[in-house]
Amino acid sequence: MDERGYCRIVGRLKDMIIRGGENLHPAQIEEVLYRHPAVAEVAVVGLPDDRWGGVAGAFIRPRDPDAPPTVADLRSHVRAHLSPQKTPTRWYAVDGYPLTGPGKIQKFAIRQAWERGEHAGHELAE
């Protein structure tokens, strides 16, 4: 609980993103992005947002790091398959992901790195 009496959830058993009262399922968004030919791997993570409470951030490992996809191309691809509110609002290129022992992506670690500013400068181009 913060100084104003608001409770903040810092971890969830599920990775669901609550955007303006609507539940977004990262796995659904990831499934669509995996189908894009320029995407090798993707992790969709809930990121804090002053207006919406939380928004979807897509952390993409491009198939070709020298020619990553553009945000416009990825946004168009997602919009062709999902409703507009499920489209990520923040897009980042990454070389890899923090993994658990069995190889599962640690989304909480991605979010923490983003909060520390470690992804600044890695935004995908429009």
Key features of this structure:
126 residues; GMP Synthetase, Chain A, domain 3; three-stranded mixed β-sheet; 5 strands; globular
CATH topology: GMP Synthetase, Chain A, domain 3
CATH architecture: 2-Layer Sandwich
Alpha carbon gap, first and last residue: 38 Å
What is the string of helix and strand elements? Answer: EEHEEHEH
- In total, the number of strands is 5
Q: Major sheet, described briefly?
A: 3 strands, mixed
Mean pLDDT, as a whole number? 90
Envelope shape: globular
What is the CATH homologous superfamily assignment?
Answer: ANL, C-terminal domain
**What fraction, in percent, of the residue positions are helical?**
10-25%
Oligomeric composition of the shown chains: single chain
CATH class: Alpha Beta
Strand-pairing-aware structural class: alpha+beta
